[in-house]
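Hey,

The postdoc asked me to send both predictions to you directly instead of through the lab channel. I've kept everything plain text so nothing gets mangled by the mail client. Protein one:
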Amino acid sequence: MHCPFCRHSDSRVIDSRTSDDGLSIRRRRQCPECGGRFSTIETASLNVIKRSGVIEPFSREKVMSGVRKACQGRPVTEGDLAVLAQTVEEAVRQTGSSQVDTNEIGLAILGPLRELDQIAYLRFASVYQAFDTLEDFESAIAQLRADHHRLASDLEE
């Protein structure tokens, strides 16, 4: 790490702390040359393997963009999308792998999106899971209804 004051190529770590979200580490550093102190934030890299084989860094914005299309006209805010994208990133990072394929990201989106808005979930699932027939939609709707009834009966008990 280069010192931001004198550009010396080395620094000494004085203190390390995990961030509140647990996804990064804040390090307090000191330059042995000029004595200047500065902070750095380190995060583990997470790469996505696309269907074409191209590898690119994970992007919460891309998750939000893909889900935003499914949420058009629905009562879903940008804040809701940001929370969903963070939830998806945390779920993907918990796999412990530094590279995940787009399929895993899609699977990680389905659960939180289903909780957020069932219509947006159906829209996203229809594209992501390549629904071909009306029966595919009927099956997904039947599963949503069954889960809804199960949840309602659990609340009554």
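Protein two:
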Amino acid sequence: MSTPISLDEEVRLYNTNAEREKYTTLATLFGIIVALDYLERAYVRDSITAAEYSPACTRLLSQYKTMLKLVGADVPNIDDFMKRYRMDHPAALHRLKVGVPATVEHSSEAGPETGKWIAETTQSFITFMDGLRLRMRAKDQLHPMLQELVTGYARFKGSKDWEGRSKMVSWLITLNGMKASEELTEEQSRQLIFDVEHAYAEFFRSLGGAKDSVP
């Protein structure tokens, strides 16, 4: 006969310290996704300002990346994790895939184009293109450089209308969906170089008219 189950006894998900740590980590990841979804919705509804949203979103994205390293093989990808636990948080899922706050993705709080910003964004372009020409292909090599480039783009008030910027955001989403050690294919890398070079040319063409309007 099987051992009777006491309805007053707490159900345990784990039997060892390692299992306990695993479920604690998964619960933390679950909480980060829920918090991020609430934050995204609050920002869209103007319940919080961009100044409040940006650092909070950046912190949650950073915590998410840290937790992914801890959960390892238990979470092969975020889509499966959310399906497994029946999480309906599309706003959070989109932000996790983009990897940067909405203020960077959509350039909602951009200011005037200063010489310093132009110089920094130009340097980001050059650094990224040099990395590609040196045959850097892995996500952990390219992602930090592309993220810095996209963040620099967001400072310019007209950037949301630039075709090159939207392509860079798309590539950022692509890299976000890869594991750190995964590499772009030869075809992908050639397309990325092509897109970056065109974005670089468009960047300077667009600034030609923008500089004249800077006070």
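Summary for protein two, as requested: The mean pLDDT is 82.

Thanks,
C.
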